[in-house]
Design goal:
heterotrimer; B: mainly alpha; MetI-like fold; C: about 325 residues; alpha/beta; eight-stranded mixed sheet; four-stranded antiparallel sheet; 11 helices; 12 strands; globular
Chain lengths: ~300, ~325, ~325
C-alpha cells in the first residue's frame, strides 16, 4: 500500500522527462540494427540531394542537347541521357527534391490531422469517437490510389493538390494508430494520477497521453513517407502527377517506357531511385519500430 | 453472428452514403464542367443547357445527391456521358477484369507469402530467412508499375515468353498478376513470419512437444492456426491496395480495367462512370472487410464466443462448476 | 528390473545469449526409484525447470544446450536418442505438467481434441475412440465431459490445470514431471489440484518429480527431496532428512525464511544477498558468497558428503562436523 503513492510519481517523471537514459537506450538499439542504419544513411544522402540539387547535379535538369539523345551511360553522363538529350542523373537529383517535398509535406499534414483526430476520438470516446471514426471509415473505404487519382484529377495536377490528395489518403492510418495507442495509454495509472491533481484534458492529452503514444506514430511517419513516394510516382506515371517540366521519377519512367525496347537504361535508373528511397524509409521505419518497442522485435 | 453481420451491413450503408457524398462533391465543386468536355467547342449554349437538363445537372447539389442515392438503390448509376450506355454496365464489364487480376494476384501472394513466411520463421536467421526478408522489403519498396515494365523487358522483350499487353489468352494474365501481387506478397510474408515467430514461442507449443507431436504438425496445426489472424487482416488490407494498385498497372499492360475506366472518365468529367466506379470499388472493399471479420470468428473461438452471446455478459473464464463440486 | 527409473549424472546445461553464457544447470546428480516421488526445491532461476526440460529433451535450442552429462531412463541414456525416438517417449513414457495453465493450452483447439491428440500419437486408435478416451480422462480429473468441445478460454485456471493433468496422464506415463503445478493457481484451488496429481499418480504407479519453491507442498507429497542452488544439488535425502536433520546452510536458510506457525518467532530470516550471477559463478561452493559460515575451504572444490545413509550434502562443514545446529 505504501508503494502505490510513490509509483505514479515515478512513472510521471520518467514520462515527462522522456527519460534521457531511455532515449539513449533506444538510440543504442537502433544503431545495433545494421539494416536500419543503412536506411538512415540513404535518407541522409537523399536529403542532401533534395536540399542542394544545384550543387550536385552536373547539368541543368531541363537543358536539352538534341544531338545527344538516348546516350548510353558514360563518364560524361553517368546514367545516360533521355529522349531530349537531358542528363538522367541530374534529373534524378532534382526529382529527389520533388519526391521528398511531396512525400514529407503530405505525411506532415496527414500526421497532424490524423493524430489530432485520433487523440480526440480515443480520449473522449463515446459519440465523438463514433462520429470521427465513421468519417475515417469513409476515407478508408475508397482504395487509396483511386482516392488520389480522383482528387488530383478533379482539382488539377499541381504539387499542392498532390500533397493534399496523398495526405488525405494517408491520414486515416494515423488516426487509427493514434486512437488505439491513446485508448491503451489513457487507462494507465499516471493519467489517473494527473487527473487527480486537477490537470485539464488538454494538458493531460498533450503532456501525458500523446508522448506515451508516440512510438507507433513515429514508425508510421517513416512508413507513410515511403508509401507517399510510391503513390506520387504512380500518379505521375499515369499522367496525373507533377506537371512537366518539373523532373519527377514517376514521370521520367512514364516518358521512358516508350523506348523500353531499345534503351532499357532510361527506365532502369528512375525505377532504382524510387525503390532505393522507399526502401530506405521502410528500413528506417522497421528499425525504429524494433528500437522503440523491443517486445515486437523478432 | 447474424446480428453482427446485420449491424455491419447497416453501418456499411451509412459509410457508402458518405463515400458517395465525398466523391459527388469532389466532382461537383471541381473546376470545369462536363458539357464543355463532352460536347466540345462547337456546342451552343442551348446544347449545353439541354445536356444539363438531360443529365439532371441543372438541379441543386443536394437534390442531385439524393436523386443519385435513390437511383443507386435500384442499381442505376446513371448513363455514361461519353458512350450513352448505363454506367453500371460499363463498370461491371471493367470491374470483372480488375477483379480477376486482383484475385489472381492475391492467390499468388497468399501462396508465396505464407509459404516463405512460415519457412522464414521456422528457420529464423538462416540464409533463407535473411534473403527472403531483404527480398520482402525490396518487394514492398518497388513501384509496381516499374516492376511491370521490368518484367515486360525481361519476359517479353528479351526472352519473348509472355505477351506484353492485352488480355487475350491466359498467358496475358501472368505478368500483371505477379506485378500487382508483388507488394502484397512481401507484406503477407513479413506478417506471416512475425506472427509465426510469436506463436512458436508460446507455451502451448511446448505442451505439444511434450506430447511427442511431430514438428510439422506443431508448425501447421498448433502454431499456424494461432498465427493466422494477423495474416488474414493483412490479406484483407492488401486486397484493398490491389484494387487501387491494379489501376496503375493496367496502364502498363494496356488492360481495360476499372482503374483505366475511372482515369479516362475523370479527365472528361464523366461523373456517372467515375462516381459509380469509385463507389463500386468501395462497396467491394467493405464486403471484403466484412468477410475478414467473419473469418476471424471462424478461426478464433475467443472471438466467436464474443459474437455468439452478444447480450449475456459472460466472462472469459466463467466460474466453473467442477471446481466448486470438488471442493 | 532396475529399481531406478531415472538417474541423472553430472548434467550441465548452458544458455548462450548475446555473447554471455548462462550456466543454468551445473552438474546435477539425481536418482529416482520406480514409484517414488521426489521434490526438487529451489529459488527462481536455480535450474529446476531446465533440468526437467532436459529430461524431456526440450531445452530450447538455441539458446540452450546440454553441455555434458547423462540422463539414464530405464537403463537408456536419453541424451543419445534421436529426435524420433524421443518423440515416442514424450507424452507416453515421460510427461510434464506445466506451470501456467493459462498459456499451456492451445487457445484455438477444443480441450477434448487436445487430450485426444496425445492419445492418438501414442496408440493405434481411431479419432472417435481417442475422443471417448479423452472424455474418460476429463471425468477422471473432475470435469464434466460434455465440455469436451469447449475451448480453453471457457475454463477457469484450476480447470485448465486439470486438463493439462489429463493430457499428461492420458497415456499412463511411468514418469511425471510437474513444474510448479499450483503456483499460478488461486490458493483455494492449489490443494485440490495437488491432491489430484498425487492421487492419480499413486493409482497408476507413476514416479513423480515435483518442482517447487514451496517446501510446504513438497512436504505434503514427496518421499525424497532435493535442494537445488545455482544449478547444483546441494542437499538430497528423504523428507525426514531434509525436514528434520537438514545440514546445508542454504537449506537451513530456506526453512528460516518460511513462517512456522507452531513456533513463536519475531521475524522471518530471509537469506542475505542474491543468487550468484549465473554468467560468472565463483570457484568452489556457489553459496559461499551468501553463507554466514563460509571459510577458506569453501573456495575450493567441495565434495559431497553422506552424514547418514541416503542423505547427501554438498558442504565442507558437514565433514568437519561443524554443521551449525
Amino acid at each position: 500500500m505504501l508503494k502505490t503513492k510513490s509509483q505514479p510519481e515515478e512513472r510521471e517523471n520518467e514520462v515527462a522527462l522522456g527519460g534521457r537514459s531511455r532515449n539513449k537506450e533506444i538510440f543504442r538499439r537502433f544503431l545495433k540494427n545494421r539494416a536500419a542504419v543503412v536506411g538512415l544513411a540513404i535518407i541522409i544522402v537523399l536529403t542532401i540531394f533534395a536540399l542542394f540539387p544545384g550543387k550536385i547535379a552536373p547539368y541543368d535538369y531541363a537543358a536539352q542537347q538534341l544531338r545527344n539523345k538516348y546516350m548510353f551511360p558514360s563518364a560524361q553522363h553517368i546514367m545516360g541521357t533521355d529522349e531530349f538529350g537531358r542528363d538522367v542523373f541530374s534529373r534524378l537529383v532534382w526529382g529527389c527534391r520533388t519526391s521528398l517535398v511531396i512525400g514529407v509535406s503530405a505525411i506532415a499534414i496527414a500526421c497532424a490531422i490524423g493524430v489530432a483526430i485520433g487523440c480526440i476520438a480515443g480520449f473522449y470516446g463515446d459519440i465523438i469517437d463514433n462520429v470521427l471514426m465513421r468519417i475515417i471509415d469513409i476515407l478508408l473505404a475508397v482504395p487509396n490510389t483511386l482516392l488520389g487519382i480522383s482528387i488530383v484529377a478533379a482539382l488539377g495536377n499541381t504539387i499542392p493538390n498532390l500533397i493534399l490528395a496523398i495526405g488525405l489518403g494517408a491520414m486515416p492510418a494515423f488516426a487509427r494508430i493514434t486512437r488505439s495507442a491513446v485508448i491503451t495509454v489513457k487507462e494507465q495509472e499516471f493519467v489517473e494520477a494527473a487527473r487527480a491533481t486537477g490537470a485539464s484534458n488538454r494538458r493531460i492529452i498533450l503532456r501525458y497521453v500523446l508522448p506515451n503514444s508516440m512510438a507507433p506514430i513515429i514508425v508510421q511517419v517513416s512508413m507513410g513517407i515511403a508509401r507517399a513516394i510510391l503513390t506520387v510516382s504512380g500518379l505521375s506515371f499515369i499522367g496525373l502527377g507533377v506537371p512537366a517540366p518539373t523532373p519527377e521519377w514517376g514521370s521520367m519512367l512514364s516518358s521512358g517506357r516508350n523506348y523500353i525496347r531499345d534503351y532499357w537504361y532510361i527506365i532502369t535508373f528512375p525505377g532504382v531511385a524510387i525503390m532505393l528511397a522507399v526502401f530506405a524509409f521502410n528500413l528506417f521505419g522497421d528499425g525504429l519500430r524494433d528500437a522503440l518497442d523491443p517486445r515486437l522485435k523478432n | 453472428m447474424a446480428r453482427f453481420i446485420l449491424k455491419r451491413l447497416l453501418m456499411m450503408i451509412l459509410v457508402m452514403m458518405g463515400v458517395v457524398l465525398l466523391v459527388f462533391s469532389m466532382i461537383y465543386f471541381s473546376p470545369g464542367k462536363p458539357e464543355d468536355y463532352i460536347l466540345g467547342d462547337m456546342a451552343t449554349p442551348a446544347d449545353k443547357q439541354a445536356f444539363r437538363v438531360e443529365n439532371g445537372l441543372d438541379k441543386p447539389f443536394i437534390v442531385q445527391y439524393f436523386i443519385y442515392l435513390k437511383n443507386m438503390t435500384k442499381g442505376n448509376l446513371g448513363i455514361s456521358y461519353t458512350t450513352r450506355r448505363p454506367a453500371i454496365d460499363e463498370i461491371l464489364e471493367r470491374f470483372t477484369v480488375t477483379f480477376k487480376i486482383s484475385l489472381l494476384s492475391i492467390a499468388f501472394s497468399i501462396m508465396v507469402g505464407i509459404g516463405t513466411g512460415v519457412v522464414s520463421a521456422v528457420r529464423q536467421y538462416s540464409i533463407w530467412d535473411n534473403i527472403s526478408r531483404v527480398l520482402a522489403i525490396a518487394g514492398m519498396s518497388m513501384p509496381n508499375f516499374w516492376l511491370g515494365l521490368m518484367l515486360i523487358l525481361l519476359f517479353s522483350v528479351v526472352l519473348g515468353w509472355l505477351p506484353a499487353s492485352g488480355i487475350a489468352t491466359w498467358k496475358h494474365w501472368i505478368l500483371p498478376a505477379i506485378t500487382v501481387g508483388s507488394a502484397s506478397t512481401a507484406s503477407i510474408m513479413r506478417m506471416t513470419r512475425s506472427s509465426m515467430l510469436e506463436a512458436i514461442r508460446q507455451d502451448y507449443i511446448r505442451t505439444a512437444k511434450a506430447k511427442g507431436q511431430k514438428n510439422l504438425v506443431i508448425i501447421f496445426v498448433h502454431a499456424f492456426r494461432n498465427a493466422v489472424i494477423p495474416i488474414i487482416t493483412i490479406i484483407g488490407i492488401n486486397f484493398g491496395f490491389l484494387l487501387g494498385g491494379a489501376a496503375v498497372v493496367e496502364t502498363v499492360f494496356a488492360i481495360p480495367g476499372l482503374g483505366k475506366l475511372i482515369v479516362d472518365g475523370i479527365k472528361v468529367k464523366n461523373a456517372p462512370v467515375v462516381q459509380g466506379g469509385i463507389v463500386f470499388a468501395a462497396v467491394v472493399m467493405s464486403f471484403i472487410n466484412l468477410i475478414v471479420d467473419v473469418l476471424y470468428a471462424y478461426v478464433d473461438p475467443r472471438i466467436r464466443s464474443q459474437y455468439m452471446r452478444p447480450r449475456s455478459k459472460r466472462r472469459i473464464s466463467e466460474p466453473s462448476k467442477g471446481d466448486a463440486a470438488n471442493a | 528390473m532396475n529399481k531406478k527409473i531415472l538417474e541423472i549424472k553430472d548434467l550441465h546445461v548452458h544458455y548462450l545469449t548475446d555473447g554471455y553464457t548462462v550456466k543454468a544447470v551445473n552438474g546435477v546428480n539425481l536418482s529416482l526409484a520406480r514409484g517414488e516421488s521426489l521434490g526438487l526445491v529451489g529459488e527462481t532461476g536455480a535450474g529446476k525447470t531446465t533440468t526437467a526440460l532436459g529430461i524431456l529433451g526440450l531445452v530450447p535450442n538455441p539458446p540452450g544446450k546440454v553441455i555434458k552429462g547423462e540422463i539414464i531412463y530405464n537403463n537408456e541414456n536419453l541424451l543419445r536418442k534421436s529426435d524420433a525416438q524421443m518423440r515416442k517417449i514424450r507424452g507416453r513414457e515421460i510427461s510434464m505438467i506445466f506451470q501456467d495453465p493459462m498459456t499451456a493450452l492451445n487457445p484455438v483447439l477444443t480441450v477434448g481434441a487436445q487430450i485426444a491428440e496425445v492419445i492418438r500419437l501414442h496408440e493405434k486408435i481411431s479419432a472417435g475412440d481417442a475422443l471417448i478416451r479423452a472424455c474418460e480422462m476429463m471425468r477422471l480429473v473432475g470435469i464434466d465431459d460434455v465440455r469436451h468441445d469447449e475451448y480453453p478460454h471457457q475454463f477457469s485456471g484450476g480447470m485448465k490445470q486439470r486438463i493439462v493433468i489429463a493430457i499428461a496422464l492420458a497415456c499412463n506415463p511411468s514418469l511425471l514431471l510437474a513444474d510448479e503445478p499450483t503456483t499460478a493457481l488461486d490458493v483455494t484451488i492449489q490443494e485440490q489440484v495437488l491432491d489430484l496429481i498425487e492421487k492419480l499418480r499413486r493409482e497408476r504407479g507413476a514416479s513423480l518429480i515435483l518442482i517447487s519453491h514451496d517446501l510446504g507442498i513438497v512436504a505434503e507429497v514427496c518421499e525424497k527431496v532435493a535442494i537445488i542452488y545455482a544449478g547444483e544439488i546441494v542437499e538430497y535425502g528423504t523428507a525426514g532428512h531434509i525436514f528434520d536433520r537438514r545440514a546445508h546452510p542454504y537449506t537451513r536458510g530456506l526453512f528460516d525464511s518460511i513462517p512456522d506457525f507452531s513456533r513463536k518467532v519475531h521475524r522471518l530470516r530471509p537469506i542475505e544477498g542474491m543468487m550468484s550471477d549465473p554468467t560468472k559463478l565463483p570457484e568452489g561452493c556457489f553459496f559461499a558468497e551468501r553463507c554466514p559460515y563460509a571459510f577458506e575451504p569453501c573456495r575450493k572444490i567441495v565434495p559431497v558428503f553422506e552424514p547418514e545413509p541416503g542423505h547427501l550434502v554438498k558442504c565442507v562443514l558437514v565433514e568437519k562436523g561443524k554443521a551449525p545446529q
